[in-house]
Amino acid sequence: MKTKLCFISLFATLQLGAQTYQNIHHKAILVDTHNDSLMQTMEKDFVFDTDLKGKTHSDLNRMKEGGVDVQFFSVFSDGEKENPYEFANRQIDSLDAAINRNPDKIVKVANSKELQKALQKNKIAALIGLEGGHQFEGDLGKMEALYTRGVRYITLTWNNSTPWATSAADETNPDGTKNSEGKIGLTDFGKQVVQKMNSLGIMVDISHVGEQTFYDVIATTTKPVIASHSSVYAICPHRRNLKDDQIKAIAKNGGVIQINFNSGFIDPTVEPREMAFIEKHKTEIDTLVKTGMLIYHAEEAMYRKYTDESYELRAPFDFVIQHIEYVINLVGVDYVGIGSDFDGIYQPPKQLDDVTTYPLITKALVKKGYSEKDIDKILGGNILRVLKANE
């Protein structure tokens, strides 16, 4: 009888723990600051509000299932595409069309007040992040037009530099592109860009930028900045990640670091193994590229074809929690959040297969002993504070 009572007690405790993390997740406002599903819909002719399971990390119904309350949809093009401003608007058109087809599930919002109204109606609040300042083509009027269409942060560079700001990719490459003044960092026009964003209410996103650009931004901005999808350099020394002094500078500025899920950005053993995987399948990749397929889609095709190999390349789930906790231990719980990069990455960590798996993060944080108040901040409260401070 005693053994039976112990078993019942243990079962009840486990049930209570499960209920607790699920309730906390449901009550929290979950904000993901970076999802690339618009690129998937544009380049692969997918429809976001259909069932894309097995094809993408995201679709509308799976976002609802995962408890996403606020989604920043990334508008992206690399530095090679002609007419990037036009392509950015086409991506926004595709988002608007999906929203118009599903007014009961999702709505585009312009500010914190509209965002709260959307949440009260149990709708996903949609905002836009522009990944790469090259997309407004050096024209502040075009930037303002994109703001009118829903852009609420701009990642100043992607891997390519702009004439007015240098990227992490170029600043870490001795032969990398310099800015129009022949230097690295922000030019005078780049500082005007930051000031214009401050005045409009567009959050300045320092993911992808070089260190000099980063510190020039911190010296220029009058509003809190974000890293929409970056992780911690001390754990994984990748050029895309933030060093301790940068994390401290963001905290002092009142900003927030949104942790990226890309396995190669969170686990230092992944990138060399990924490079070996790509080299192993280079012949197939080259064949696909010759048919007109974009290089990153050709590489993605290998991950999907060789599933056993690619699965072993994925980082352990715990690395995501390690990056979140590192920021908390360094500067406090008020400066970290989630910027998954779903559908912009090939390999999320194990268990975080798609947008339905966000509750696993909440479960892990509960198990670590974080309070509901702190979990609320991590899942969305911190970025919503920064959004409001920029308005």
Defining traits:
disordered N terminus, 6-stranded parallel β-sheet, TIM Barrel, 391 residues, 2 domains, alpha/beta, 3-stranded parallel β-sheet
Strand segment count:
9
Q: Roughly what percent helix?
A: 40-55%
Please identify, by name, the CATH architecture of the largest domain: Alpha-Beta Barrel
Query: CATH superfamily of the largest domain, please?
Result: Metal-dependent hydrolases
Structural class: alpha/beta
**Largest beta-sheet details:** 6 strands, parallel
Tell me the overall shape.
globular
**Range of strand content:** 5-15%
The helix/strand series, from N terminus to C terminus, equals HEHHEHEHEHEHHEHEHEHHHHHHEHH
- What value does the Rg take, in angstroms? 21 Å
What count of structural domains?
2
CATH class of the largest domain: Alpha Beta
CATH topology of the largest domain: TIM Barrel
Q: What's the tally of helices?
A: 18
Average pLDDT number: 94
Measured between the Cα atoms of the first and last residue, the distance is: 62 Å
Describe the structure.
The chain has 391 residues and is an alpha/beta fold. It folds into 2 domains: 21-267 and 315-390, Metal-dependent hydrolases (TIM Barrel, Alpha-Beta Barrel), CATH 3.20.20; 270-314, no CATH class. Helices cover 51% and strands 11% of the residues. The protein has helices spanning 2-27, 37-44, 60-65, 84-101, 112-120, 140-148, 168-171, 188-200, 211-220, 244-253, 263-266, 270-280, 282-290, 295-305, 307-313, 318-331, 359-368, 372-390, and strands at residues 30-35, 68-76, 106-108, 124-131, 151-155, 203-205, 226-227, 256-259, 336-338. Strands 1, 2, 3, 4, 5 and 6 form a 6-stranded parallel beta sheet that branches. The longest helix has 26 residues, at 2-27. It is globular. The model is unreliable at 1-16 (pLDDT under 50).
